[in-house]
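Page header: ASSEMBLY MODEL / three components / 1057 residues total.
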Amino acid sequence: MAAGSISYEDFKKAASYFIELSDRLGDSWQLQGTTDIYLIKKTKTTLFTNRLTQPEPEAQKLRLAETETVETENTFPGSEQRLSTDETAQPEVVTLAGAESAENESDEDVHTLSVPHETPVVCTFDYHIVYSHSYMVPVLYFNVYTQDGALLPLDDLWSSIPVHYRQSLDRWTTLTQQEHPHLGRPFFQLHPCHTQQLMTKALTDCYTRLRRYMVCWLSSVGPVVHLSMPLAYSTSC
Amino acid sequence: MMADDKENLRAVWDGKIPVCFTLATDEVFTAEQPEPMFLMLPRVSYLPLVTDKVNRHFIRYVDPDDHGEMWLEDEGQPLKWHNPIGVLFDMAEAESRLPWTLTVHFQRFPEDELFHCSSKEVVESYFMSMVKEADCLKHNSRIIGNMQKRDHKQLWLGLQNDKFEQFWFVNRKLMVHSEGEMFRHIPFRIHWGDRHFIQKLIKPVSADGNAVTLGDLLRETVPEILPKEDSDASSHRVIIQGCVLPPEVPLQWLSEHLSHPDNFLHICVLSA
Amino acid sequence: MEWRRVILTRQHERNKKQCDAFVGLIQAHNKLFESAEGHHLANAKLTVELEQLKKENLELMVKLEAGGGSGQGDKNMAQKLLSLQEELTDFHKRKGENSQEIIDLNKAVQEKEKELVAKEQKILELETSIKQLNEANENMEQNLIEATTANQVLGDEQQALQLAFTSLECKFRKLQEENNDLVSRWMALKSRDADKMNAENDKVLEQKNLKMQKELAEAAREQVNITAPTGDNMGALGTPTACSFVVTVPSRAINTLEAHDGEVNAVRWSPSGKIFATGGSDRKVKLWQAIGSKCEAKGVLTGSNAAVMSVEFNMEETLLLAASNDFACRIWSLPALRLQHTLTGHSAKVLAAKFLGEPNKVVSGSHDRTLKLWDLRSKNCIKTLFAGSMCNDLMTSDTYGSTIVSGHFNKKLMFWDPRVDTCRQEILMEGQITSLDFSPDGMVLLSCTRDDAISLIDLRSNQVMKTLRADGFHLGCDWSRAVFSPDGEYVMAGSGDGTIFIWNVMKTKVEKILQQHKHPVTACSWSITGSSLLSCDKQRTVVLWADF
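Prediction written out in full:
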């Protein structure tokens, strides 16, 4: 078994640890399912997004190109190796002129320009932590509903993600709609393909591995999708 | 050894379904009734990739101020575009009612059943996630991880543009396995009725070194559909790529040759 | 590896069934679909192109109108064009002005031509008149010459005649001398005759005186006691006393005569009752004498220019006064039947004229709403009395001073003193007054009114005493005259149907009805003798009524 991955049995253990922790800290995570278990949590969060009211196809395109550019300068943990190979593939994909030589500051300029004003929207987040047998890691599924019960569109969701994540993540590989493995309904999925590598680096101590696995993983990926992990989780486990 | 039965690969690729598109009558906004549209859709492709024309054709007949994403419906059932067309067709058991007549909608998108698909990138994103998951199962993400982005793109464009050679030029790398080292697990999904797909970790070689067959897989995953020992008559049909297959076919070969482009073996279970 | 084949076969079967059966069909359909789509698109494109071309065309046309050109040149051109257009407008304006001038000038020329034509016409006329005048002149000259020659001839003749005249004068003088001589001789003879006559007369007178003295001497011898009344006395009194006559109401028409042509307006017995006068529309006054049942015409008085409306004798029967519709009154002397006076001054027809009590004074009443007093010696109107209404009849009375009573169209009786200008008294009657008469004692005034009544007014109280009416009595005209009998016991009036009514005043009822006239009766008169009545009508007739 690879270093970062976790078996289903271990996941179950880790999950129960996590639920225990959550209960202790007064968080609202709950265990669901019998044979195939998963964890859920619902919270309300105010999102700031400029895309909720009016779609901006131009800005959208621009951002799309940027994210691809940004990915070439990836700072995502464990992707340094791919950096060199990706750069050769670059010209095929990137059409934005001068993107290759784009500096961080200019990128930021573009971002600040493309987010001129942000509207606060109260959203309900429905988080599910489901074990992926394929990847042998926990996967974060979630849906965001607006006040009227409609799903927050992907574009809005993406634009609500903090800028530094957007700069370092590929939109099309990070967030995809998937069928919920147990419910069958469409859910957004934070793609698990890098989870194993991440966890390999994050967890070295085998002794406390299962206890800390969930906290460690969730505090890494949660902030991307507005899932806040109080500091108490880290200090308590 | 790798996917070398070109005839079967080709037959999978060439599988097409005659489809008739009609606009939902309550969404016809114009005085003129739209003509139905006929297309031969590749079984291995995805609906959003091949329905641009349909969209362009029918969008002229709907209320320009009140229409959203296009979606398709078959006899009241919204079609999950993220499954390959062949799978949708087989699951709809539409073989007996050709051409397969689909209703086009532009309103009331059922977002608790279907994924939004605002652009082809969404399809690509989903497709690539499937390919990645498959490779994770087969090679622990080793091959896809080592692939260049250009290869990903080529894989995708091969599918999008219905280019068999272009696709297989990349896809065959994903199908490699050396003698003695088969796929780690077989990426498959069993679609059964209205239920959610079934996906489990199944190895192509059993612990005792024998090749695992389709029959073994079914026994392992969905034993309830197999004929009882006291009766010959099977209560269910198992269909892959529109065909009923002999149960003795090894999974490794099936995965290599009869998988969809997403590298998954989609197995449809239908009641007989 | 049998399953490979099986799978392949099954796949092929699948394709055969699902794919091959439809691929051709759908391809064909799609081809058709696309071509239809293509046509649609092409059509749309063409429509758009057409629109664009139309637009371009329009623009080009606009540009063309604007004058074409492009860019800088266009601007210049536009500027030039603008200036040219302005010039053009100027020219147009000037042209307009010029044409206006031309029009004005043409008009002036036309007027001038008209004037010219008129002048020429005039000239022509003048020339013809000159010619005519010349001709006339020539004629005149000719005439002059002729006249001169004629004059010469006449002069010669005159000379000759003068000579003859002189000679004749000489003869005349001689004859005159002879005549004078003869006359003086005749005178001498006459005087001689006269002397002889005188002598003879003297002789006769002497003889008469002698005879008378002889008779006187004889008479002186026999005793006679007789006092004879003198006629002179009666005449001086003026009003004849009727007591001596017996008034009888006649019942017979003893004579019917056609007196005038047309209407007979007036009839009047003379104060003595010997003659009577009639006046008619034939402008004549006729005098008649009734002898027994016969009426003899005694003379015709002419001079009136219109119908005679009334006739009146003076007491002495020496004058006859007639009022005429020719606005005048006339007076004739009687035995001579000569027109003595014509009294003019009224401005309308005169209905009545009467002698005033005083000698030589006449009063007349006219439709000009005045009464006029006339002096026959000065032949002047001495007074005009303004009555205010047309006068139909008037009467004079001496009984109560010198009084004039006039009856008017406005139903009023007016009493006048000739010495005063104003009306003394008025009495309002029931109808238009047609005639007036005094009773013989002068105490009662008869007034005949148009309401077919005859009122008797006591002049002492000025009260209507009696009113006489009768069935069938209807006045025929505005000047129908009614009269008292000479003793005042009866009143006589003629009706419109020709009937004469005679009322007994005392009894206030009709005494007698006389029928002879066929036409409306205009006037009547009762003789002083008391037994002879006269009446006249509108158709020539005068009837004499008497019982003997």
